[in-house]
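Hey, resending since the last one bounced:
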Amino acid sequence: MKKSIICLAALLCIALGFTGCEKESEGLTNITYFAEIILEGDDYMVVAKGSTFVDPGFTASMKGEDVTDKVEVSSDVDTSVSGIYTITYSIVNADGFPASASRTVVVLDASDPVEGMWKLDQANSQRIYNGGAPAAYKGAFEFLIIKQDDGTYYVEDLMAGWYAQGAGYGSAYAMEAIIDIADDGTISLLASQVPGWGDSADGLTDGLYDAATNTITYKLFYAEVIEFDVTINKVDLGL
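The structure tokens again:
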């Protein structure tokens, strides 16, 4: 008798399990087709402050069908204010699975002598660890410097791409910073942070902006044992 009760209980569990599966899958198709969004133009664009921005456009397809008209677009682009903006394109398929793509739009003031894209001078830049031999950067990395409303400047990566680009760690390991540039070109560090590690610079010395050559030089100290000797040149973006 005991054995029969156990068998009956097992059958009931199996039956309930199947019922549960049916309820969980109710409304879902047998095969899920994911949407694909393809951006027209570049996914990283630089435009002049005060200009009119026109989205280059996009297309979307799913199961071989054009579903471009079903894509939702979210944008915070404001060309009246310098900054880094994002346009997000998103769509959800019949089973609730999302697909998305994004475009970065950078607005820069061409009339400002400092604001813009800056490129590392590899030949004149290096990292020194704990007083040892200088190590060369792995590339001529580029990053943005953007003027703030209060006249100071936001620097996208004060470490000039050493970790974020050279080591491949990503943007969370760029040292974002706020600097002040005096009338004589002297640069002072006001604030900094590396989001990925939750720390900041120890200090900055010998900072100088040379307007005649569009060059910035500085020594950056980090993590008590690291010194970055950086020389960067402004990139002509043709804005």
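The two ends are 88 Å apart (CA to CA).

Sorry for the duplicate.
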